[in-house]
Amino acid sequence: MFQRILIPLDGSPRAELVLPQVAFLWKRKPTEVVLVHSVSAHGPANGGYDAAPSLVHKREVAHSYLQGVARRCMEAGANVTTRVLEGSPSGAILDAASREGATMIAMTTHGRTGILRWLLGSVADKIIRASDVPVFLIRPVHLTGLSAWEPKTSGELPFRRILIATDGSPASMAVVDPAMQFAGHFGSEIVALHVWDSFVPAGAPLLGMEAGVTPPEEAPLPSEDEATAQVARQLGPSGLKVTRVTKYGEPAVEILDHSLKNGISLIALSIHDRWKFSRWMTGSVPERVLRSAGVPLLVVRGTSNPALVSRHA
User: Fold this and answer.
1) What sign does the CA torsion over 82, 312, 174, 292 have?
2) Using an 8 Å Cβ cutoff, are 4 and 101 in contact?
3) d(Cα 62, Cα 66) in Å, to the nearest integer?
4) Which of 41, 49, 171, 181 has its CA 20 to 30 A from that of 210?
5) pLDDT at 105 over 70
6) What is the pTM of this model?
7) Which CATH number does 1-147 carry?
8) pLDDT tens-digit profile of 1-21?
9) 139, 109 Cβ separation under 8 angstroms
10) How far is it, in rounded angstroms, from Cα 32 to Cα 34?
C-alpha cells in the first residue's frame, strides 16, 4: 500500500500538513512520493474579477511550488516525483492516481465539523467516494475537547491505536488489510469495533448486513461477536495486538465516542458502493464519521466496481 503515494497539494500550508505523516512511512520503507497540483484555465486571478492568468503561467507557478516542496521532502529522505495536472482537482487527481500507479492517496481535508462545504463538492469528498486505492486523510484541525477545535501544527503523529470499524459485511472487511499494513509499520494496536445499530427502520436491514438479520436485544459479548472475530482471524498471522469491542447504539456516535475516549489515533473504515450519493448526504455511518472525526482516517471503498461511482462526480 505504501509503495507509491500520491499527495495532492493546493499551495496552502494546510495541505502540506499531511507531509510529516507520510514522512513517517518513507523513513520506514522504500516509498515513492508523487506530489501533484492541479491548475485550470478557468477562474479569476486572486479570487477577484481581473482576467485569469494564462494556463502557461499557472503551470509555471505550480511547477515552481512543487519543486520547492519536493526539495524539502528529498532533504528528509524521500524519493519524490512532481506532476502539474490540468482540470478540475478531483478528476485530475483521480486520473493521476490511476496513471501513476498510486497505491494510496494521502491528503489534508479543508473542512471542519459542522461545515457542509466539506460534504458539498469538496475535493476530498469526491476523491473518497471514487478512489480505487486507500485514501489517508489528515484534518487541518484537531479536537481538544468535546467541542473544542484548534489548528493542527505540523509534526509526526504516533499511530499507537488504530480503530477498525466493521459491521460484519464483506464490504467492511476491505479495510482490514490496509489497516494491518499501516499498523505493521507503526507497531500499532488494533481495536476492532462492531456497533449493533439500535435504530433500524421497519422493514430495513441492518446497515451493512444482509436482509433478514434482526438486531439483538443488547450487544453480544465481544468474544461471541462474529463481526470482530473475522477481523481478529484476518489479523492473526500479523502478530499485532487486537482488542475486540462490541457495542449497541447508533454506529457513528459509538465509533466517534470510542475514538475520543480511548486514545484512538486513526480510524479505518470502508465505504460501501451501494450507498448512493443521496444516502451519503443524508446521514450514513461513514459520512458522519468522516465529517466529525477528530483523528486521521484511512478510507477504503468496499468494492472497486467503477460502474457504481463516477470518477469525475
Assistant:
1) positive
2) yes
3) 6
4) 181
5) yes
6) 0.82
7) 3.40.50.620
8) 889 999 999 888 888 989 988
9) yes
10) 7
The alpha-helical segments, DSSP class H, found in the chain are 19-26, 55-75, 89-99, 123-130, 176-186, 226-235, 251-261, 277-281, 285-292
Q: Establish whether domains 1-147 and 158-313 are of one fold.
A: yes
C-alpha 258: how far from chain center = 18
| Every domain of the chain and the residues it spans | 1-147, 158-313
Q: What are phi and psi of 241, to 5 degrees?
A: -75, 130
CATH assignment of 158-313? 3.40.50.620
Q: To 10 degrees, what angle do helices 285-292 and 251-261 make?
A: 30
Q: Which residues pair with 245 in a beta bridge?
A: 193
Extract the C-alpha cell encoding 50: 481581473
d(CA 234, CA 123) in angstroms, rounded, equals 33
Question: Which residues are CB-contacts of 60 (< 8 A; sequence separation ≥ 6)?
Answer: none
The tens digit of pLDDT for each residue in 230-265 reads 999 999 999 999 999 999 888 889 999 999 999 999
